[in-house]
Amino acid sequence: TWKWVVGPMFLYLCERLVRFWRSQQKVEITKVVIHPFKTIELQMMKKGFKMEVGQYIFVKCPAVSKLEWHPFTLTSAPEEDYFSIHVRIVGDWTEGLFNACGCDKQEFQEAWKMPKIAVDGPFGTASEDVFSYETVMLVGAGIGVTPFASVLKSVWYKYCHDATNLKLKKIYFYWLCRDTHAFEWFADLLQSLEAQMQERNNAGFLSYNIYLTGWDESQATHFVVHHEEEKDVITGLKQKTLYGRPNWENEFKTIAGQHPGSRIGVFLCGPEGLADTLNKQSINNSEADPRGVHFIFNKENF
């Protein structure tokens, strides 16, 4: 038995030593941004840190807990000179981090007052393959939208730098969210992308649909009253917020009709139930002919 145990134990010990070494490397918090509804953005720098789109890191804050590591998806792009995460304040550890960063104080906080942060990673996910396709469907459910913040930022940087060499030509983005509280920080990013795409006369590059799934009758009535306004009353975007859930069969058939003979990447960050639905639709709407349209499903669950 010991011959079978020694090998895995040695690999586990090596992994723990690497994590300990990484945790001792200096991480500098360069900026803390407080977003509405108790969501904070931590912008950090670490020597030698390299990332790809959609990756995640483990974070430890000794001022809150000396042993706890928590995973967070990176919301910055590889082209930026810092890496960032967005933290929603929903529990004891996140509340402790919120207070340790001085977010509960009104006065300006000096950089030297920021708590020590340990970072392990980054680690890869399926979202890294986004740039392998000409057409992609990005589907985020709730907080599952965070990896696509990194993707959309990186796409924009690559598009501005050299659009002719960018293989990715069309993005269909779907965000399913229960309530309006989660729209705040991500809507700002979409507004910026929307404005910049229009300036370059390529508004069709990004098609996005935001679905508010936790709606009630009063919200639906409010939606109808303001539907004719130029911008959506919830997100401030030109694309109106939709109520309910998408009809995935219609969405897949429409996209398949617009991109015949293409390999279309379908990327999901969301619950297992939605993954099953999208996987089934990807199979049903892919043609048997190798020259026909094919949907390639990729997922990460939370």
Automatic annotation (TrEMBL):
Q: Name one GO cellular component term.
A: monoatomic ion channel complex
Query: Does the record's keyword annotation contain Ubl conjugation?
Result: yes
Q: Which reaction(s) does its UniProt entry say it catalyses?
A: NADPH + 2 O2 = 2 superoxide + NADP(+) + H(+)
Q: What is this protein called?
A: NADPH oxidase 2
| Localisation | Cell membrane
Instruction: Provide the alphabetized UniProt keywords.
Output: Cell membrane, Electron transport, FAD, Flavoprotein, Glycoprotein, Heme, Ion channel, Ion transport, Iron, Isopeptide bond, Membrane, Metal-binding, NADP, Oxidoreductase, Phosphoprotein, Transmembrane, Transmembrane helix, Transport, Ubl conjugation, Voltage-gated channel
Functional note: Catalytic subunit of the phagocyte NADPH oxidase complex that mediates the transfer of electrons from cytosolic NADPH to O2 to produce the superoxide anion (O2(-)). In the activated complex, electrons are first transferred from NADPH to flavin adenine dinucleotide (FAD) and subsequently transferred via two heme molecules to molecular oxygen, producing superoxide through an outer-sphere reaction.
Pfam family name, one = NAD_binding_6
* GO BP annotations listed: defense response; monoatomic ion transmembrane transport; superoxide anion generation
What is its cofactor? FAD
Question: Which residue positions does the secretion signal occupy?
Answer: none
Q: Which residues form the FAD-binding FR-type domain?
A: 19-129
Q: How does it sit in the membrane?
A: Multi-pass membrane protein
Which regions form coiled coils? Answer: none
- Molecular functions per Gene Ontology: metal ion binding; superoxide-generating NAD(P)H oxidase activity
Q: Which InterPro entries match?
A: Cyt_b245_heavy_chain, FAD-bd_8, FAD-bd_FR_type, Fe_red_NAD-bd_6, FNR_nucleotide-bd, RBOH/FRE, Riboflavin_synthase-like_b-brl
